[in-house]
Write a structure and sequence with these properties.
Layout (H helix, E strand, L loop, with lengths): L1 H5 L2 H39 L3
Length: 50
C-alpha cells in the first residue's frame, strides 16, 4: 500500500479507473447474462401448460 501511495497521482488514478472499469463491465455482463437466462427459462416454462 505504501508503494502504491508513493507513485505519482496520475498513474494511481489511472489504475483505479481501469480496475473500476473492468468491474463495471463484469457487472454489466453478469446482468445481461442473468436477464437472458431468465427470459430463456420463462420461454421454456411458458410452453408447458400446467
Amino acid at each position: 500500500m505504501q508503494n502504491f501511495l508513493q507513485r505519482d497521482l496520475g498513474s494511481s488514478m489511472l489504475s483505479i479507473a481501469v480496475i473500476l472499469g473492468w468491474l463495471g463491465l463484469f457487472f454489466v455482463f453478469l446482468r445481461v447474462l442473468t436477464i437472458s437466462i431468465k427470459r430463456m427459462l420463462e420461454a421454456v416454462f411458458k410452453n408447458r401448460n400446467y
